[in-house]
Amino acid sequence: MIGCEGERFSNKVVHYGTSLRGTMQYWFRERNHLIAMIDSQGLPTIFFTHSAADHQWSELANLICPEDPAGSILKFVDAFYIHTLKATDYWMRFEWQHRSSPHVHGLAWLPNALNVENLLSSQPDLVESTEQQINEYAEEIISTINPAVLPDGSNFSDAPPPTVD
């Protein structure tokens, strides 16, 4: 009798673990979701990592609705990936650095993008030309600067990194 109860209990724990971020069960479920996305849509167009200079962007906090920060972030993400990049889908994994600064790793499927599956070809010429096309495509869509100029004429990207105590 104890064996059956123990099995039922452990099944419930494992089941509920899928909804607890950070657990092995949660990431196993997310991994399966990602595999299903790749199976149905093919390889993603881009892998990305975003890190915010959050200690330099005090106004960023003002843009996030304090009553619903998670909802605000999701709306921002959708606005960027769906409306700006026109992604057909995306998948993300959020992580926090030791100083509690968030960053995200993810994959996105963009329309009219190159067929990255050509990189898996056994034909060296096809792989090389695909790499070149991907580099050119990346130059068009990727930015690593903040062009905003501060009132004193400096740029956020010119600011020294914050010190962490």
Descriptive key words:
165 residues; alpha+beta; 45% helix; Helitron_helicase-like; Helitron helicase-like domain-containing protein
Number of helices: 5
- Which spans of ≥5 residues are poorly predicted at pLDDT below 50? none
Total beta strands = 3
Global structural class? alpha+beta
Query: What's the arrangement of strands in the largest beta sheet?
Result: 1-3-2
Counted up, domains total 3
**Secondary-structure element sequence?**
HHEHHEEH
Large-scale geometry: flat
Mean pLDDT value? 79
Could you tell me the radius of gyration in angstroms? 21 Å
Distance between the termini: 56 Å
**Biggest sheet overview:** 3 strands, antiparallel
Helix content: 40-55%
Q: Tell me the fraction of residues in β-strands, as a range.
A: 5-15%
Domain Helitron helicase-like: 10-107
Protein name: Helitron helicase-like domain-containing protein
InterPro entries: Helitron_helicase-like (IPR025476)
Pfam families: Helitron_like_N
Describe the structure concisely.
This protein has 165 residues and is an alpha+beta fold.
Please provide a written account of the structure.
The protein has 165 residues and is α+β, with helices and mostly antiparallel strands. It has three domains: 1-41, no CATH class; 46-110, no CATH class; 113-143, no CATH class. Helices cover 45% and strands 13% of the residues. It has helices spanning 2-17, 24-41, 58-63, 69-84, 124-141, and strands at residues 46-51, 89-96, 102-109. The protein has a three-stranded antiparallel sheet, with no helix packed on it. Residues 10-107 form the Helitron helicase-like domain.
